[in-house]
Amino acid sequence: MTQAEIKLCSLLLQEHFGEIVEKIGVHLIRTGSQPLRVIAHDTGTSLDQVKKALCVLIQHNLVIYQVHKRGVVEYEAQCNRVLRMLRYPRYIYTAKTLYSDTGELIVEELLLNGKMTMSAVVKKVADRLTETMEDGKTMDYAEVSNTFVRLVDTHFVQRCPLVPATENSDTGPPPPAPTLVINEKDMYLVPKLSLIGKGKRRRSSDEDATGEPKAKRPKQSTDNKEPIPDDGIYWQANLDRFHQHFRDQAIVSAVANRMDQTSSEIVRTMLRMSEVTTPSGAPFTQPLSSNEIFRSLPVGYNISKQVLDQYLTLLADDPVGCL
To answer: Which domain of life is it from (predicted)?
Structure first.
């Protein structure tokens, strides 16, 4: 990494997380992989503070850890992931463009918190949307849940890896650090939750939601809290999917500039058909037949199958080789 990039990482970490997290993060960027006690010694920071800083960095996918043969856990900074924080506003704006204000706030909450359960995201976003609505109107949890599911279906949001059940049930001593795994087929599997309720407005500190002063409220037991329905299932924003979307937009724009609007709409349709079946870094989309493309063209786009085939031939023969 260049000195300018390290300085930029330092400024980003300090702005988002404060001085201690910035000190630990930049130290790992400069030195590479290191164990906990070495980090504490080299930075002159207490073990407790280093642990808390590493927790924050791991929560936001800015640091990864690895267990070595002797059981030593080493921590390593993800420099490119830190620099991606510059694009947070663009990710959020993209979610707003595709999924309106609800999608915008879902992605914003996930980026601000690193990882969250679906139920926590839905309740927080419903509350935030309710705050912006007219008095008497509220945002239903079900509506936010539907937008969350759509974001998962299009892979903009994905499940986080978790500790396998077998590791929890072992009778021997626990490993120095947990191994997090996830099956690819489960990465976009949304649990069936019945989240019933509406967003709540913030009240003044002297009154609760019913409008009663605090002094008149009976004390309630804290032991009766309902269990979280999706406890342990955490979600994060899939930044590679956002980059795939940006790349696809650039391709469509380039085809429109080189040829015409119809050509770009055909390419856009092919990219949209392949967006969740093709890995983000793949050099090609999945193969698609002209019949499939014809059936998937936007409603109201009136071109015949024969004209589509002519356009496909034209695109395939173009020296740029985009098709």
So the answer is: Eukaryota
Which contacts qualify for 317-322: CB closer than 8 Å, 24 or more apart? 318/258, 318/259, 320/258, 322/251, 322/254, 322/255, 322/267
116-117 and 73-77 beta bridge pairing: unpaired
Give mean pLDDT, residues 31-47.
92
Q: List the Cα angle 35/170/118 in 5-degree steps.
A: 75
Report the distance separating Cα 3 and Cα 99, nearest Å: 38
Q: Is 179 in contact with 167 (CB distance < 8 Å)?
A: yes
The DSSP bridge partners found for residue 75 are 34, 65
CA distance 182 to 209: 40
CA distance 278 to 289: 16
Question: In this structure, what token pair is assigned to residue 172?
Answer: 């021997």
Average pLDDT (31-37) is 91
Q: Is the pLDDT of residue 217 over 50?
A: no
pTM confidence score: 0.85
**Per residue, what are the HEC states of 135-191?**
CCCCCEHHHHHHHHHHHHHCCCEEECCECCHHHHHCCCCCCCCCCCECCHHHCCCCC
Rounded to 5°, angle at Cα 23 from 181 and 21: 50
> Does 192 or 270 have the greater pLDDT score?
270
To the nearest whole number, what is the mean pLDDT of the chain?
87
Q: Average the pLDDT over 260-285 and give the result.
A: 89
Query: In the β-sheet with 116-117, what is the strand arrangement from edge to edge?
Result: 116-117, 234-237, 157-159
Query: What is the number of other CB atoms lying within 10 angstroms of the CB of residue 245?
Result: 20
Polymer length of the chain: 323
What b/e readout covers 66-92, taking b as 16+ CB neighbours within 10 angstroms? Answer: eeeeeeeebbebbbebbebbeebeebb
